[in-house]
Amino acid sequence: MPIEDCKLIDLPAISDPRGDLTFVEGGNHVPFQIRRVYYLYNVPVDSERGGHAHYDLEQVIFALSGSFRITVDDGRERREHWLRDPRTGLYVDRLIWREIDAFSQGAVCMVLASQPYHEADYIRNYDAFLKATKEGPRT
């Protein structure tokens, strides 16, 4: 999938004197039905997460608190995105390698996923990822 498909998605916000409320609807605000939600927290500031791609899974990644950097790679080009606004997520399509680092103290990373967890969907070796990008998605 081309790296241009990795786009920032802004969610709606409702603000009043009591605070802000943001919501997300699968198939409306994100380009898939949400089948799994997970989040990372208590990540040491010098840690790296990700370091993989998926054959079929699509994701939108948010910084609910704090900030972190996501580097996306389609096998030809790499781009960096800093996430720090809980209303803005990064859509990561299938066959995109992702690396997440530079976590701020107390950062919380939430991921909306298009599929339940399946280990067989992960590509954890970069050379295997490059081969898969030439073959294209399995679905």
TrEMBL record:
Residues 5-133 form the Sugar 3,4-ketoisomerase QdtA cupin domain. Signal peptide: none annotated. InterPro entries: QdtA_cupin_dom (IPR008894), RmlC-like_jellyroll (IPR014710), RmlC_Cupin_sf (IPR011051). Pfam families: FdtA. This is WxcM-like domain-containing protein. It comes from Spiribacter salilacus.
